[in-house]
Amino acid sequence: MRTDMMKFLCNATLLCLTAFPRNYILEEAVLVAEELWNTKMNSCSCSVTPRRALAKRLVKSNRQDVLLCGVYARREAAYGNIDHARKVFDMALASIEGLPSQDLRSNTSLLYFWYAEMEMDNSSGSVSESLLRAIHILCCFGSGVKYTAFKCQPSNLQQLRARQGFKERIRIQRSTWARGVIDDHSIALICSAALFEELTAGCVAGIDVLKQAFSMVLPERRSQSYQLEFLFNYYVRMLRRHHVELRLSEVWESVVQGLQIYPYSPELYDALVEISHLHTASNKLRWMFDTYCQKNPSVIVWLFALSYEMSRGGSQHRIRGLFERALGNEKLCNSVLLWRCYIAYEINVECNPSAARRIFFRAIHACPWSKKLWLDGFLKLHGVLSAKELSDLQEVMQGKELNLRTDVYEILLQDEIQI
User: Fold this and answer.
1) Same domain, residue pair 71 and 164
2) Does residue 30 lie in a domain region?
3) How far apart (Å, rounded) are the C-alpha atoms in residues 383 and 377?
4) Is there a single domain that holds both residue 1 and residue 80?
5) What's the confidence (pLDDT) of residue 224?
6) pLDDT, block means (10 residues), the chain with 419 residues
7) Where are the alpha helices (DSSP H) in 312-407?
8) Are 92 and 77 in contact (CB under 8 A)?
9) Can you tell me the distance from the alpha carbon of 306 to that of 312, in angstroms, rounded to the nearest whole number?
10) What's the CA gap between 328 and 370, in Å, rounded?
11) How many C-beta atoms surround the C-beta of residue 135 within 10 A?
12) Residue 257, C-beta contacts closer than 8 angstroms, at least 6 positions apart
């Protein structure tokens, strides 16, 4: 929505790409920022891809960066340009053999996994062409043969070779994981093997691959790796895809177990809310949220608890109680986000400007450094606060060096003229 901010983010991330080692996370960030900036500026249609010129320029500056090709293809797919994304993925995978070093060739795992995931997301039905393409991609990866573009469904012999190949690679990976060496490439290998089993042998076989992978790591190490958190989130996504075939209690227990290891994972809380609609009563979920808020207080937990109450039409006393308990916590009382959400709730949901006014003054007392919070007084409460209060607020802001671009007296004068 803010084109200037998107332009700044794009330029800042481009500078980071030159200052730090190239990595696909920064590359994806710069493509998304460029996409949002150009789409807003040019009012592009859905068929136009504003990040294409930037991606080609970045690839030209480092032609061996195949992961950038993968990131670019994923953005094209997110924009709906599946055919173009396939061309980019095919080109990147075909060029892997010509790369000079083993480190560059190790990026193969992520490319194969991203490509197969893209086809999975594009599939519709149990025998769609996209699913056959995903199986072909994973067969090439598992069997270790040179990648070729999709032509037909892989044979049973090709699938058998791929299955044996994945098992052998995971066996080799076991000793590496035992030493605590876990990276994105090994996680992509595990996820690819699980996805291959899911597509060819069923969800139970895919889930077993992921469970065996977790058994390769000591329990105390699982919470210390963002890669293992990604793997667990992928495991939960697979459970959610097949919750009809599985027992809901199994899915529920897996999510609850995951929250004990990763208590700040938004994806796990999202799964908890979704499964709770099918598996358990709302009071039980409220009790669980209260427990998590007490044991591991964080903005994430409180936001999910609040959004759940609002989506279920919870009482205003319950919602206000959650806000007050959250902001009464010594770890969260300085959370600008929670204060702003509380003000917005009173204004937009409860339509109670006087309550919002009281919360606003409490908020600026708790977080006096937040310019965004002070601006809420001018933008959201200008109809509640008097001219003198707004003037006093501006003076206090100036004293704290929170300067405004527009003089508040000009705004007040315009209001008087309109009246």
Assistant:
1) no
2) yes
3) 10
4) yes
5) 82
6) 79 88 86 77 52 80 83 89 93 80 71 95 77 94 91 92 95 85 92 96 94 86 88 94 86 91 92 83 86 90 91 85 94 94 93 93 93 88 85 85 68 54
7) 316-327, 336-344, 353-366, 371-379, 387-399
8) no
9) 10
10) 19
11) 22
12) none
DSSP letter string, 31-78? HHHHHHHHHHHHT--TT--TTHHHHHHHHHH-TT-HHHHHHHHHHHHH
Question: With DSSP H G I counted as helix, E B as strand and the rest as coil, what are the percentages for the chain, rounded to 5?
Answer: 75, 0, 25
Rounded to whole angstroms, how far apart are CA atoms 280 and 6? 42
The residue type at 129: E
Instruction: Decide: 110 and 70 in contact? Cβ < 8 Å.
Output: yes
Domain residues for 391? 344-419
Question: CA 369, CA 172: separation in Å to the nearest integer?
Answer: 52
* pTM given for the model: 0.84
Q: Look at residue 364 and tell me if it is in a domain.
A: yes
Measure the CA angle with vertex 370, ends 364 and 373; round to 5°: 60
- Residue 181 CB coordination number (10 Å): 10
> What amino acid is encoded at 395 in this protein?
E
Neighbours of 240 (CB within 10 A): 17
Q: Convert 233-258 into a string of H (helix), E (strand) and C (coil).
A: HHHHHHHHHCCCCCCHHHHHHHHHHH
Biggest alpha carbon–alpha carbon distance for the chain: 82
The number of distinct structural domains making up the chain is 3
Q: How far is the C-alpha of 51 from the C-alpha of 83, rounded, in Å?
A: 16
Looking at the domain assignment, is residue 333 inside a domain? no
Report how far residue 15's alpha carbon sits from residue 150's, in angstroms, rounded to the nearest whole number: 38
Q: Tokens 């077993």 map to which residue? A: 208
27, 71 in Cβ contact below 8 A?
A: yes
The angle subtended at Cα 213 by Cα 208 and Cα 217, nearest 5°, is 140
User: Are 223 and 261 in contact, with CB atoms under 8 Å apart?
Assistant: yes
* Length reported for the chain: 419
Structure tokens at 254: 């897996």
